[in-house]
Each structure stands twice: as C-alpha cells, then as structure tokens.
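Attaching the record inline, Q. Sequence:
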Amino acid sequence: MEDQALAFDHAMLIREATQATRQEIEQLDLPFGFLPDKFTLGELQEICEQLLGRRLDKSSFRRRLDDRGIVEAAPSEMRTGAFRPAQLLQRRQD
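Structure, as predicted:
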C-alpha cells in the first residue's frame, strides 16, 4: 500500500498505530482485542507473530508469559481437534 492510495494523513496514522501495537506486544501488553475470550497458547502466539510481522521463539514467549502472569487457564476447558487437546487460556481477572 502506497501513501498516495489513502487520503489525507491516513497512511501515516496506520503506520503509527501499527508501530504502537508492535511495541505493546514486545512489552507483552497483549492484543486481547484481537482474540476471543478464551484462546489457546498457540493462537495467542500466532496473533502476536502476525501483528509483529515476525516469528517468536516458542519457549521464550511462553516463559515471558509465565513470568508476567497475565493469562491463566480457563477452568476445565480444552479445545480438541486433529492434534492433542489444548488448554484454553483467558486474560487474568485480578
């Protein structure tokens, strides 16, 4: 998308919003607005990667989440599919 394709300063506003969102994710201020109320760890990592535009190290990402304590397991809820069941998570409600 080129700047000329958007009217006024909209391209600049989009760039700034994208950069701000990426900085928040880097600091683990997670993009809960892009997720359902309950999600898997893989889904959370995937949306963060999509918004950042790069891959994240799986073990480092999970370790940082544990250290921050910003998500918790949704009691007794699992998502099943073609692979092994995945624990559903939710935003910590402190």
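DSSP finds three helices and two strands in the chain. The chain has one domain: 3-91.

More tomorrow.
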